[in-house]
Amino acid sequence: MDSYTTKIRELSANLLKDEKVDFIIGFKQGTIPMAASPHIAKTSEQAEQFIWDNNCRINLANYLTSRKEKIGIIAKGCDCRNIVTHIIENKIKREQLHIIGVPCNGMIDKIKVSSLFDEEITGYSETDEVITIKTLSDEKNINKTEVLKSNCMTCTHRNPVIYDELVADLVEEQQIEDQFSDVRLIEEMTADEKWNHFDNLLKNCIRCYACRNACPLCYCPTCFVDESGPQWVGKGQDPTDIRTFHYLRAYHCAGRCTDCGACVEACPMDINVRDFTRKLNKDSLEIYGWEAGLTLEQRPPLDTFTPDDPNDFIK
Amino acid sequence: MKFISIDKKDWAKGIEASRKTYTLFGPVKDKNSFLIKKLENDILPEMDYNDCVMSAKSVIFPQTEKMLVTSLDESQEDHHIMKKSETDTSPRAVLGIRPYDAKAMELVKLNFDTEDYRDPYWCDAYEATTFVGLGINKPGPFDFSTSTGSGPFEEAGLDVLLADFDDKYLAKILTDKGEAFMDTCGFKTSADETESGVLFDVLKKEAEKNIASHIDTDKLKEKILLELHEAPFWDDFAFSCINCGTCTYVCPTCWCFDIQDETKHKSSIRIRNWDTCMSSLFTRHATGHNPRSTKTQRVRQRFMHKLKYFLDKYDQGIMCVGCGRCVKSCPVNIDIREVCKMMNSYEKQN
Q1: How far is C-alpha B101 from the geometric centre of its chain's CA atoms?
Q2: Do B235 and B305 fall into the same domain?
């Protein structure tokens, strides 16, 4: 990914030098192994800190919400789809943005990697297809494809959807035969099994709201769980309140979620938050032929109405 | 100092014996990490753990805790009178707690048990608990506890400190509470004091040597509070913050809470929940005024509280034990070690 890093720095420095943008949002090297940290560069020196590697998992569209400045942004496929969604939802204007598109080969799953080792990871490095992990007493090379994030494994939009410049040639998109096998497994469960599955999924939730706050879609001025007059949802650890938060948040993402995986990435408790949103993505595709964030030309299905909208769900 | 030798073959039996008197808590494997949980019958603590995403603070300070209860049924004489909820103060023990987590309890105690006020919920739970720590032979890469006045074999806040010697534990008995727990377990094989002391020392020195991460805190005390408050670096640190509560919830020393009333049918309870200064709701006034309405103000609050206000108020070090959990769990890798470095070295430019 060194060539990506070099190109990102070069394009960013030029943009800032030519004063085409007020600042650029990208990633810098994290302070710990397998981490990249969102970074804002206002000067070409700060742009020198930009990097690109297999750990740029966070969705940077999240940092654009309601900004007024002229902004450069380093955006992989899913970030771009959320930028499109932001533009459609009037959270930012296309004219405000200079998008440096990053054709993406997927990010690695830090938990999958950690689970391969008994000890904590002390070092990380990568070449194109291989990552090297160090622990106190071990060192291993792992093929990147073996530890891809699960949403990256089924991603069919690795290339930026909209962009002003690219850091590299577009990559070949994956052909995925069965994109929703994980959802089908849950669909096939009995009602009780489903209930248990989701209960089990949420049993360690600490309501830190990292999933919500990492999600570019979650920009409500006051989230329904934070509303205090009147208060709609209890704020404690009552399982009903925890469920209510997750179920309602997921429905609020229906037809909008790009499956970027930022929610899962942010969760400190290793909760596969995508188990909620994936079903809604599947429904969006099957019912409306819709995948979020692919075009600026069309309104999302859930904010339009046509008399021939599918209504099979009304029993 | 008294030492007891515990053959690991006897460990399970001893722990089982302690259940008659104690409710047990300890590390349990959960998916890819470990959590400190109540040890249900037949579940033994998995002492050989290397990563524990949450600290042991919830054993004393649950994320949601019932404080007061009342009835809204007006046919009852004492309706709408809030009364203290029944709390369980029977003996409990936390097994395998990280030494820095026990040290953190001591720091938290400074807030909950003061000359003017004693928080009955926290203090009762604390007093009911025996802390059986396990020295960390191989500190992880996030551990910077030796820079914070703690360390892998820190004894502060512990009742017993265990050291793992492959086929046995050597237990250093630190308090009467600790001795009582060992008695209940039936662990009675005394170990030679001098020899055990040396063995402990060797392990401790080796472990401390393996800690690669350090911070300097020596100048924080002399810094002028308002100058740090107005320092120019806060915006940079705050930029990437998404204002989730992860850092505060995984932190063993974060103790802020929020009080809520909840009503169901004719009964009402008053609970307290962990609060987080990262949330825009934190200390928001009923008038709608928010003392920290911006992200930068909230991020600054967290670090100033940990590294400056607490230090100035109590003069007992910083409110951080160097466990590194916030560094590891932060979704955007905001690193308290970096913030501390900036604060400790900050000189105001005129």
Answers
A1: 4
A2: yes
Chain B residue numbers touching A206 (CB-CB < 8 A): 54, 63, 245, 249
Q: Put residue A274 in one of left, alpha, beta given phi > 0 → left and psi -120 to 50 → alpha.
A: alpha
Q: Does B245 touch chain A (CB under 8 A)?
A: yes
Judged by CB atoms closer than 8 Å, whether chains meet at A208 and B242 is answered as no
Report the residue of B333, B340, B342 to disrupt the A interface, i.e. the one with the largest count of A CBs within 10 Å: B333
Which of B:60-119 have CB within 8 Å of A?
62-64
Residue B306 contacts residue B183 (beta carbons within 8 Å): no
**Is B220 within a domain?**
no
What integer is the mean pLDDT of A223-229?
90
C-alpha distances in angstroms, B157 versus A251, B20, B86, B217? 46, 24, 26, 22
- Judged by DSSP in three states, B238 sits in helix
Which among A104, A110, A62, A87 has a CA at the least distance from the CA of A211?
A62
Domain of B146, in residue numbers = 2-209
The yes/no answer to whether this complex scores an ipTM above 0.85 is yes
CB of A148 within 8 A of CB of A107? yes
How many other C-beta atoms lie within 10 A of the C-beta of residue B100?
Answer: 31
Distance from CA of A28 to the nearest CA of B (A): 10
Closest Cα partner for A56 from A30, A31, A81?
A30
B135 within a domain of the structure (yes/no): yes
Q: State the smallest CA–CA distance between residue A255 and chain B in angstroms.
A: 23
| Confidence (pLDDT) at A1 | 63
Domain ranges of chain A: 1-107+156-176, 178-302
The reported pTM is 0.96
Query: Is B218 within a domain?
Result: no
